[in-house]
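#onboarding

Welcome to the new folks! Below is a worked example of what a typical request in this channel looks like: someone posts a single protein sequence, and someone else replies with the predicted structure as tokens. Don't worry about understanding the tokens yet, we'll cover that in week two.

Example request:
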Amino acid sequence: RRTRMQPQAPQVNHHDVHEELVSRLARLTTTTVRGDDDDGDKGNEFYEEEATTATWCSTDSESDWSDAEQKESDIQSSRCDRPTLNAASGGHGRPWARTARRNKFFYERDERSERENEWKGKAFSSTNNASEEEFMFPYLDELDVDVAALICGKLDAKSLVAATLAKKKDDSDDANDELAKRAFRNVKVTPSIFSQGRSLLTIANVAKAWLRKLDVSKCKQENGGNTKAMLMEVAKKCGNLEEIVAVDLGENGKFKVNEIKALAMGFKLRRLTCNVSHLIEHVRKHHPDVNNFDESVRDLVWCLENNWRAFATTPAGKVSTRDFEKLSFTLACVGLKVHAACEKSLTEICPAAAKNGVSRFDASWSLRIGDGGIRAVARTIEGENGGSGWKSLRRLALRKSACTNNGAQSLGGALTRQGYKNPSAKYPIRLRWLDLASNDIADAGVTALMTASHHLSLTRLYLMSNRIGADGALSLASSVLHNDESTLKRLDLAHNGIGDEGCATLLSPGGSGASKSLKVLLLGFNSISSEGVKDAGDLLRLLRIEHLDLSCNTLKREGFKCIVENWKFDQGNLAKLKSLNFACNDIGGGRTVRDALSSLAAQIENGSELELLNLRGNDLDEVAAEGLADLLLVDECDNRGLEQLNVGYNKIYNAGAYEVFEALSENVTLFGLDLQRNEITDESAESLERAMTENTVCEECDVRSNMFSESTVKELNEMFQDRINARWQLEPPKKRTIQRETYYSRKEKEKR
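Example response:
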């Protein structure tokens, strides 16, 4: 480009330079990759992408439909796109190399920004004597119409912002700015663009006269920032803005009723698509005379029904200058989170949510709901009381809602009758995710839900912390694990206490088939011993599970040995297993465990694709550490080998640490190693330094809560920085000297 500071700019051959212009501007282009909708609704614009929890990302929950959601990717495409040990184990373990990867991300971002600024300095140069490298670009509106159209077609919103900002307007009017009109009528802000500073306010300043639709979906502010406040500023500056799409903005990005009312009554906005969060106000013990329950429920219902005139007729209603007959406003609620819900409130809210087209409904963490509230949801699904069903519902979360067998049977019956695979369904529903964790559902309720699953295409089912026994496990086995037509990808049965009988029933080798879609199976905290898992290998070799959690059971040494020897991780589909969690199973140490670990290493060499192994809190000793060394010495073949190993909170001591560090120095696949709280002292510091110096692949070795001295910790931090995390060391045990108090010592003490 050239600037208007020059009195007479040289003529430029537009057709000769447009290719160079396109190639340089393309460096600013940001591409948004969108995955397939897990719900299977290709026409639904407002999907929630399967969150890929890669090894460089935080594993905190980012779900807009359930507060307790733990996400992993159901489909992993590469070694980088795989869940961390923390995610795959259901919260146990360590998020690996987070700091190192964060620093790498910021370094690459700064480097990219530096290259971009260097290019801008050349492209926007105002010097008269420009060299060949400092190419003088013409303005887009000075090019031929065909050339300008070609260039604008290749640019995204970010590049067009740069093009418009570079133009020094003297007497030009916003209303006649054809470039802004073309670039900013409909703007889609991607997360990568949004993270580059004040992008929304920049767009509002540049295109305030022409902006009609603004889409900021998935643009979350870091450090708890609020994207909604920025949207309000944009709405104030852009008087012609008609539509805002703000879906999946994080926990702080859900709109409250008061914020929606302000947009509806104070601006010319015609449509708002967003997620909504609302708190039901109940009567408080300390203020029994204040009762805002009816008002809080009524306001939410009016918003969902788009009954905006009703707000102005209330005594406390704000007088609106907007004529809703001439200028209507529509709230399109994608996800609704109701806090402190109860049976009475759900009876009114659910029909309004179904009428609005809510696809994700979350009323978790409210013991006021009970079976009555569950039945209110079921009645809405069946279209009772003049309703038309809840056809838009895709995700339903009722975690910790005091649901028992009666509520589960009512919900299961409604889903069975209205499931879209049922030919007699009057209001067909396509529910995909169902969360009923932390309730009081037993075998009868699970059986009803499994009956409903045959008429749906569920992909995720959360039944953690219920009372499922052998009969419920049998229903799950026949409907999911032994059903080759099952669509379920994730099954959470942790904290149910199913025991050996339930586990043996669930993973029994019998049955006519095996699920082709199940990827994640969580069986932690279920009192499973060696008897429950000894015959499970036959079924697991037929399934296609990638993440298996057996943490906090009672496997002990015998169960661990039985699993390694009988399951055979290098055979069948079990060779595709990516992560395995044995945390807190009292495995112990000794030669038996060492031989089992060595056998597991041999299976990885023979074809197992195991990458994440969690052995945290199992009392592994120095002898077992020899088997850990064998795991790290696996020859990399066909891109195989452990990437993350967690052996924290064990008893390998210095002797075991020496074995591990010696093997680590030759390893070429491990990204993260957790050795927390193993009573490692300065004796192993030299071998640790040598291992991390020779190993250039490992990004983080966590040795916190050991017994390194302050000088050793300082030296490790200076040498390896974020690659070794050695903070928060324990003090070594001190020798206690007992001094008896005598007559003379007392006299001396009195004199002092």
